[in-house]
Amino acid sequence: MEAFRACLFSHVFYLLVQVLSVSSVNPDIAITEFAVTEPKGVTYKQDTPTQITFDVTIANEAAVTGDLSGRDDGDNIRLALYLTDNEQFETSTSDRIPQTVEPSDAGFRNAIAAGGSFQTGGSVRANVDVPAKLCGTHNYLCVRAEKVAGANYIEAIGNNNDKCIMFGLQTDGKAGKKQCQLHTDKEESFNGAILTFKDMTVSDKWPQVVTRYRSKVADLVNMYCNYKSNFGICCPGYGCRASTVTRNVVTPDDVRVGRGYPEQSNGNLRVMTLVAPKENNALCELGSSRSRRATGTYDLPQNALVGALADREMDFVYELGYDVVSITASEHLEDPKEPVFESWLIAVIAVCVAISLAAIIAIVYFTLPARERKPSVYIYD
After folding, report:
1. What is the mean predicted confidence (pLDDT) over 63-90?
2. CATH number, domain at 114?
3. Structural domain of 369
4. Alpha-carbon Rg of the chain, whole angstroms?
5. DSSP 8-state class, residue 287
6. Are residues 276 and 209 in the same domain?
7. Which residues pair with residue 38 across a beta bridge?
8. How far is it, in rounded angstroms, from Cα 85 to Cα 131?
9. 195: left (phi over 0), alpha (psi -120 to 50) or beta
10. How confident is the model at residue 350 (pLDDT cuts 50, 70, 90)?
């Protein structure tokens, strides 16, 4: 036993030395500041590219011996921009949305001494496009310093090279306001479940829990759909379940918020949730007719989603820290119906009009003096 402990201690000590040596020798590129500088008062509208200018501070947080040398044949670093559902890039849901960053000569090939930094000076431009279907979940704009092929360094620590800021007023250090659709989509209303959270606000509290919310919804749907009796409504068209193996029907990426949501209501927050599993997902592939679908997605039926979430209020309370007021099916929206006139009603209206006209003519004829009723005849020579 003593020999085993000595061996284990030696191994741990070796690994620690290796980590410390790597950290002390190699550069540690980090983004310490990130701000959207132009245009002032910017508002991002869904499905509409918006050009911005932003400024970042890139630092080398390595120890004294971890200098980053300059490069003559290209850049060491490139900046990448993403939309995410979490302020920590690494823990955000994997459906991050890359944005277009324009090429820039902002010093990305220059040397950075250990402990040093440089600022891009608001010279980097990008186009930000917020897709409508993810407008309610992706509340952060994240910038990352990514290593370019052939760069003159090995990254010492890889989880500090990004920085995310929330959408909101630029004067508060945020990325600018985000404008999502305000009305509910008719098609989405047929498949949604509405969860109402007590004392949650859309501007600051909702963005902090979105990632965990999507993960919890996915967990509950997977649990519900793995019951054999629920296979048919979770995997419509896939036949009968041919195995009892536990598989997932959705991931957090498949969970999104309906257009027009989240919405503030009497101090509470209402969130219409939708789930779109991938066709031929792991669970549905267990069906006897699993080969009949092509790749793509399908909408999880509303009764399956509500069935998975109903009576699970405490799961959300424990996960998010907010009380759940209710979990209900979203109301189905219908197009305004055109007036429909039956043929018999049209016939009745026509007869009534004819009778009314005849009555008016008779009254006029019999009330006029007789002389006025005689026709005047003019004979032209």
Report:
1. 91
2. 2.60.40
3. 343-373
4. 33
5. B
6. yes
7. 53
8. 13
9. beta
10. low
Q: What's the mean per-residue pLDDT of the chain? A: 84
The phi and psi torsions of 160 (rounded to 5 degrees) equal -125, 15
How far apart are alpha carbons 202 and 167 in whole angstroms?
Answer: 11
Q: Specify the pTM.
A: 0.79
Residue 282's region, left for phi above 0, alpha for psi from -120 to 50, else beta, is: alpha
On the question of pLDDT at 345 being above 50, the answer is: no
Report how far residue 285's alpha carbon sits from residue 290's, in angstroms, rounded to the nearest whole number.
Answer: 5
Residue among 135, 185, 213 at smallest CA distance from 299: 185
Burial zone of 23 (CB within 10 Å; 0-12 exposed, 13-18 middle, 19+ buried): middle
Residue 6 confidence (pLDDT) above 70: no
Token readout for 60 is 């080398």
| CA distance readout (Å), 60 to 2, 21, 104, 139, 218 | 42, 16, 20, 28, 39
Separation of alpha carbons 112 and 29, rounded Å? 9
- The residue-averaged pLDDT of 50-59 equals 96
Q: Are residues 168 and 209 in the same domain?
A: no
In the listed set 179, 208, 241, which residue is the last one of a domain according to the structure?
Answer: 179
Cβ atoms of residues 213 and 137 within 8 Å: no
Query: Which of 170, 193, 162, 156 has its CA nearest to residue 274?
Result: 193
Q: What is the DSSP letter of 297?
A: B
Contact by Cβ (8 Å): 144, 79: yes
Same domain, yes or no, for 65 and 209?
A: no
**Burial (CB count <10 Å: 0-12, 13-18, 19+), residue 189:** buried
Look up residue 299 and give its DSSP letter: P
